[in-house]
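#struct-pred
JK: can someone run the complex with zinc ion? inputs below
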Amino acid sequence: MAQEGGKVTRVDNDIRVARLEDMAGEERKGEQELMQFKKIVTRSPISEALPPMVEYSVESSEQASALDEDSADRLWLVVRNLKDAEDRKVDYQIKKFDILKLGRVKFRVKDFKCAAMAQTPEELYEQELKEAKPVITSHDQLQEEENRSSSMTPACRFCWGTESTEEDPCIVPCKCSGSVGFIHFRCLSNWLGTKLQRKESEDLVSMFWKTFECEICKQAYPYLFKTKSQRVYKLVDITLPSAAREAGHYIVMESLPFEKNSSRFIHVMGFSERKTQFSMGRGHESEVRVSDISVSRCHAKIKYDPNGIYIEDNNSKFGTIVLMKDPLVLAKHHTYSFQIGRTVLSFTVRDHYDPRTHYMQRIAQFKELIDKLPESYRGSSDEASGGGSSDEMESVKAGESGDEGGEMEEIENTQDEGQDPNQEAEDEQMDVEYQ
Ligand SMILES: [Zn+2]
Ligand SMILES: [Zn+2]
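RT: done, structure tokens with the ligand placed:
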């Protein structure tokens, strides 16, 4: 396997796209690596004589991936700009544990099932294990204390019971330390159950908790946790909407709270022959309501297909984006654009005749474009390149949105009840406006 490619870096507000060979030896001061694009050539395992497989992938840099989801250096895929080889819009195929952002509201895909699942139960378990938060049990604590010869079995702070079993371990699910932190998995799950408000229709179950946190340390509880025995525990039972029970096809999405707000929403959308899509948005016509001014009235659609569950952006004002957690292999001639902070970059894998000159031309053209159109946003508009055998991945700096104040004014008129416009205007997350 051979590799070549390039990367995207940033120094202050200056974003640079370059091939690895062009940037060799010149590192700029304070340079942050944001993303990488790679050409991956895999030789045929059968014969050297067969043509190798060539793929292109894009991924967030290791540095940026380690940052918080809200960091401006994280890489997001822009759903609206996904295009196929004929330049038609393509919906994004949702993966488990994806983080989607509608306007500034984040959703985590907690689970889904469609007819043709690409994953085996083992793979699903591995994935859950990766996502689950590790917790200690009273048994673990006891063993540790025995080594220090001061052992007393910690009791559950709800029922005072001291037993801890594989089925119902006594755990510390929050930041509370010492013996006060222990609680039975079932005691916790039952307690959260009493705080749950449910709304149910034939196709949709919405669950709401005003708080989903420890009352003492205020730490939000995870939904999945794991003990040392590598068993995964789910704090919330998911019941499917009645119309979806037979086929068993559904998606579970959790809306992630803003800071200083520990409320939780979980939506279970059930698919049936009659019901194959759901609309999400701020308007009453949307089935999954999201009350935030950054969300359009009918913002996005969740669509069921036997091969997968997809999201389509419905020309929303602030867009629908997906956090890039894993490398993304780019299909040839398809267009993908990524958002980093306020910058949007587009990538298209195309056939090519002279990689180097073509590439330099592109960079020059798009530098020009950015200067001319500082606030608007464009996909790439490339002519088809001539024949030849080599491929080239183009990277295009498509646009940056500048000013933050203006866009807030435009949506103030359509604001929903109970929002504080001043507070919203201070929010710096909502930088890119899609037109
Ligand atoms: Zn208990
Ligand atoms: Zn606590």
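RT: quick notes.
Residues 378-391, 396-431 have pLDDT under 50 and may be disordered.
Helices lie at 62-65, 121-131, 138-147, 185-194, 355-372, 405-412, 421-425.
JK: thanks, will look after standup
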